[in-house]
Every structure is written in structure tokens, then in C-alpha cells.
């Protein structure tokens, strides 16, 4: 089974309505960082859930920052690399709000 399938797709963010120009690696909105639960393995589009994936935090993998998403429908958590055009201020606000809750 393939672990990654490159799909160059444009989409409209279901959270904020921003038009996202896909690169084949794009999996979340660069403006609000929301994603959609559409893949079992990256790019396969085989997930039946289709829930909105909310950005809830950040971590690092192999020296790269990742955004952590949680599906609002099924609760699964996934992490995805941050892209160069992602709005880092959104991520900083998510992390600040998370600390305020703790």
C-alpha cells in the first residue's frame, strides 16, 4: 500500500472560505490552518469521515514544526508540516489560548 499520493488540488477552506491553491502537498488552509479529514494515507482521499480538522497545537518532527489537527467529527488527531505561506500568528494564538486554559 502506498504511503503518499501526490494530489495537486485547489480547494475552498470550509472554515474560513479562503481559496487555497494546492501544490500537491497542501493539506490545510494557510490562513486559518484548518484541514479536512479526507485521507487514510496522505493524498489517497479514502477516508469516509470528511470531518473538519481543527488546529489544536504544534510539535516538531525531524526538526520541522508541525500543526496538530483534531477532527471535530471523529476525534482523530494528525500532524502536518507547516508550509512557508502558513499564518504563524494563527498558530501562536492557538498555543497562547491553549496555555490560558491550562
Instruction: Spell the H/E element sequence.
Output: EEEEEEH
Question: Number of helical runs?
Answer: 1
Largest sheet: 4 strands, antiparallel
Strand content: 25-35%
Number of domains: 1
For the largest sheet, list the strands in their spatial order.
3-4-5-6
Return the average pLDDT rounded to an integer.
92
State Rg: 13 Å
**How much helical structure, as a percent, in the residues?**
10-25%
Provide the structure class.
alpha+beta
Q: Ends: how far apart?
A: 40 Å
Shape: globular
Oligomer: single chain
Low-confidence stretches: none
Q: How many β-strand stretches? A: 6
Describe the structure.
- The protein contains one helix and six strands; from the N terminus they run ββββββα.
- The protein has 102 residues and is α+β, with helices and mostly antiparallel strands.
- The strands form two sheets. It has a four-stranded antiparallel beta sheet with strand order 3-4-5-6.
- A hairpin with a 2-residue loop joins strand 4 and strand 5.
- The longest helix is centred in the C-terminal third of the chain and has 14 residues.
- The chain is globular.
- The model has no long low-confidence stretch (mean pLDDT 92).
